[in-house]
């Protein structure tokens, strides 16, 4: 009988492998909190979803930094690296590779941007029309689109996530939210994203809502994650899930979709008081 050796692996029973396509994504908007450490604990709770690489992006409102490497969350980050990621919002990712090989170039969050703003993206799922997205970039920028756009594609990233990042950063005259509305409408497949610029956190799911994305409330902010286990790890109270089909922006005014504010349950205030010190 095969026995575990303490290592995270899917090769313990090679003849009984099931499909594996679940990365872990996490995002937090919380002024006054150590958002990099909250993201670390969230990713630690999601480690079972992906063990190949881990990364965190954080912003203080003016500068966005990404730190990522191959390995488990506890191997990639230490006090020094977490201390360098300062700010009031952050996203994180732990990867199980599906599209693109298991290399540093394909680790997430992916990074892109223009002269005026930056976008970082963490992705769980698979897109079935990556060829169409690449053709769109070819149409807009020609055969040298990877070099012209810079960012992840020019550094050798071969994932569908890099294509989405390039499209999100492809229109410097529009807001990230407005661009995301157009980009998300072009995507086919089962996916969820957490992404950010210097000021705001965004969360989005495929229109069918196949990939999970849960939302939680902190005392001084908001959290979004692949699973409720990550909310519990940082003391966040779960509230209604991120609605599929459109980006939800999380900033000083709280979670908002482009069409209407997120509606909390009628008994939400009383219910959240039972969640301990992190309830509002």
Can you tag this structure with a few keywords?
280 residues, alpha+beta, six-stranded antiparallel beta sheet, 10 helices, 13 strands, 26% helix, 26% strand, globular, disordered C terminus
Written account of the structure:
It is a single chain. This protein is an alpha+beta fold and 280 residues long. The chain is 26% helix and 26% strand. The protein has a seven-stranded antiparallel sheet. A six-stranded antiparallel sheet has the order 5-6-7-8-12-13, with helices on one face. Helix 4 (130-141) packs across helix 7 (160-168). The longest helix has 12 residues, at 130-141. It starts with 23 loop residues before the first strand and ends in an 8-residue tail after the last helix.
Structural class, by secondary structure, is: alpha+beta
Distance between the termini: 50 Å
Query: In sequence order, what are the helices and strands, one letter per element?
Result: EHEEHHEEEHHHHHEEEEHEEEH
Shape: globular
How many DSSP-defined strands? Answer: 13
Identify low-pLDDT runs: 1-13, 260-280
**Proportion of residues in extended strands:** 25-35%
**Count of discrete alpha- or pi-helical segments spanning 4 or more residues:** 10
Walk across the major sheet and give the strand order. Answer: 3-2-4-1-10-9-11
- Rg of Cα set: 18 Å
Helix content: 25-40%
* Assembly context of the chains: single chain
Report mean pLDDT, rounded to a whole number.
83
- Major β-sheet, in short? 7 strands, antiparallel
């Amino acid at each position: 009988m095969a026995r575990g050796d303490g290592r995270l692996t899917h090769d313990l029973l090679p003849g009984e492998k099931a499909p594996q396509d679940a990365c872990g994504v996490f995002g937090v908007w919380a002024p006054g909190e150590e958002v990099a450490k909250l993201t670390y604990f969230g990713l630690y709770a999601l480690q079972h979803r992906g063990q190949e690489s881990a990364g965190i992006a954080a912003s203080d409102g003016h500068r966005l930094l990404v730190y990522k490497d191959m390995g488990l969350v506890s191997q990639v980050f230490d006090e020094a690296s977490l201390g360098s990621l300062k700010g009031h919002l952050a996203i994180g990712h732990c990867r199980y590779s599906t599209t693109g090989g298991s290399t540093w170039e394909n680790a997430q969050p992916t990074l892109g941007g223009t002269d005026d703003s930056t976008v970082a993206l963490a992705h769980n799922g698979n897109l079935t029309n990556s060829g169409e997205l690449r053709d769109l970039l070819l149409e807009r920028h020609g055969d040298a689109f990877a070099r012209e756009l810079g960012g992840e594609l020019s550094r050798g990233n071969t994932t569908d996530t890099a294509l989405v990042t390039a499209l999100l950063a492809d229109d410097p005259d529009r807001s990230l939210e407005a661009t995301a509305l157009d980009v998300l409408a072009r995507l086919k497949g089962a996916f969820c994203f957490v992404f950010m610029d210097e000021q705001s956190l965004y969360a989005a799911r495929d229109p069918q809502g196949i990939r999970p994305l849960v939302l939680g409330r902190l005392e001084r902010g908001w959290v979004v994650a692949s699973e409720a286990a990550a909310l519990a790890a940082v003391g966040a109270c779960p509230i209604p899930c991120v609605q599929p089909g459109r980006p939800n922006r999380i900033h000083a005014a709280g979670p908002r979709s482009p069409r209407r504010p997120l509606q909390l349950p009628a008994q939400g205030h009383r219910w959240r008081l039972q969640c301990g010190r992190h309830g509002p």
